[in-house]
């Protein structure tokens, strides 16, 4: 076996099963960060093979290709179980790691016992709901949707979060995504790389983020390597960030150190400085555009102009725009048609129509569906037009501020939810400990009842708190000993014994025989919790 063969065809299922059985497979991890706060919201578990010849191999060097089913189901099951056990170990050490994400292959997803194996892994590690996130390839949406949705719903029932990995690579799943019970889409790393370099690809990434948000899905970006990529993703409200810009893929021990010392990772940049107010003017008449530029230049706006809808869309892909003013009657694409597309791709822009033709019905429909913020007429009155555009910018800035506050509230709620989860886990552990202690106490009391010689327990106030059957028979005098003061039932020699040193013993004749009486003080750390009296029957004639 050589690395060229590994990289071109992947290792065989038998090779991987043998590597797993021999302990050669291990998990490394990479953090996923909140796109606003920079907090670690999950870690992704990534398979590595410590090969005896080639050394440590990344998944791309040996994983079977997706068309062959990818990772064998048995190995995939081991990965899920190992990732859950690792997260449980981190939580038990007091580290804050909300979730672990694991890739699932097609072979693993189609295995008959897939859902049951995930359930077993969760039960064995006692993870709280939402702690495991399973990632599936976008090609999953190309199969039988009824079976796919059924399996995903079963996983959802186990408390598992679901993500579509490498989203946007094929774009075949957009029409099916809204019917699929998933929580997260992960942008394909090719889109992330090109979000700042190629305007066409950048517009695709922005559109995908907007569509996912409209479907109430979180968006995660992997493969983020530069500050420019991070800034572009933050500007488009990408929810989670992952990549070498923050951390390499690292072993579990290094990941543990990173979780313990968040400062070891580069900080998330602070909020971007205020952007220059940007307006896009779209009109097929150059003289109109020139007049608008002259009028609005005094207000300090950054002004972009386009001679039609297609040119306007191109400028929007290359620039962040706040307000759009478009003519209605233009060749190839009317202003309403243009602004409808803008609403779908860039819903946070404020869109106005400036036209000398009313075309009341189409414009009214566009206003009612939210594609147009306001309709303005030509010819315009300068001060009134400037006032309307200033109002549109204030409306946009107020909406931006509301979104910012909403994002901060979401982060605060996330932190509160994590604190609540930790509190509930702590309370549950205390309840489990109390239950174990109560069970142990019940067993101990049952054992003491079976011992064939008298045993009496007293609290620190010298009141009887325990007496077994033999003690009740000897000292009970026809009634229960519980709650009776020590002096009321014991003979003077026994009372003196209990006032003496711990471990003291005397021989006592009474109760129908000769007894060896033993005294033990109960408690620890210098705090006395009570005393214990034990009587052992001596053979005839004494010890």
Question: Could you walk me through the main structural features you see in this protein, from its secondary elements to its overall organization?
Answer:
The longest helix is centred in the C-terminal third of the chain and has 69 residues, at 382-450. The protein is elongated. It folds into 3 domains: 3-264, Alpha-Beta Barrel (TIM Barrel), CATH 3.20.20.450; 278-398, 3-Layer(aba) Sandwich (Rossmann fold), CATH 3.40.50.2300; 451-537, PAS domain (Beta-Lactamase, 2-Layer Sandwich). Helix content is 44%, strand content 22%. It is built from 19 helices and 20 strands. Helix 7 (145-157) links the parallel strand 5 and strand 6 (161-167). By secondary structure, it is α/β, with parallel strands linked by helices. The chain has helices spanning 3-9, 13-21, 59-62, 73-92, 106-109, 114-125, 145-157, 174-177, 189-194, 199-214, 227-235, 252-260, 286-296, 309-318, 335-345, 360-368, 382-450, 469-475, 492-498, and strands at 25-34, 40-51, 55-57, 100-104, 132-137, 161-167, 184-187, 218-221, 240-241, 250-251, 278-282, 302-306, 323-326, 350-355, 374-377, 455-459, 464-467, 505-510, 513-524, 527-537. Helix 10 (199-214) crosses helix 14 (309-318) and helix 14 (309-318) packs parallel to helix 15. Mean pLDDT is 84; it is low at 1-9. The strands form 3 sheets. The protein has an 8-stranded mixed beta barrel with strand order 1-2-4-5-6-7-8-9, surrounded by 5 helices. Strands 12-11-13-14-15 form a 5-stranded parallel beta sheet, sandwiched between helices. It has a 5-stranded antiparallel beta sheet with strand order 17-16-20-19-18.
